[in-house]
Amino acid sequence: MIALRNRTRRMLVMNLEHEVFCAAGTCACTPVWVVVTDQSPSGVRAQRAIEKEACASLTLLPRELRSGVSERVLGCREVKAALRAGRLEVLADTRPSSQSVTTEKEAAS
User: Fold this and answer.
1) pTM for the whole thing?
2) Within the chain, which residues score under 50 in pLDDT?
3) Most buried of the four, 26, 51, 52, 75, by CB within 10 Å?
4) 18/34 Cα distance (integer angstroms)
5) Are 4 and 91 in contact (CB under 8 A)?
6) Nearest to residue 5, comparing CAs of 81, 72, 93, 75?
7) 90-109 pLDDT, tens per residue?
């Protein structure tokens, strides 16, 4: 577990891609239904509902320090970009592992 600090005066919201974040453990994505319109070669249009996965996200308030974050977030593109830009800082986690929070979805349940 690690701790992340938002170094900016703005809120940071970072999407945690399913292929990177969820591949290493349990899936943190949320299933959503999307209605799409298909057109057949004969010109007939029809709507159909498909199930997709909405990736989990990590939201940090301005200057917030979030402890107990899984190290898997470091592999996600938006987290890497925030680290390179200096908007995000990685620190050693000092909280006991029993109190750790990985994502907003896991914190809500």
Assistant:
1) 0.68
2) 98-102, 108-109
3) 75
4) 18
5) yes
6) 93
7) 998 766 654 444 455 555 44
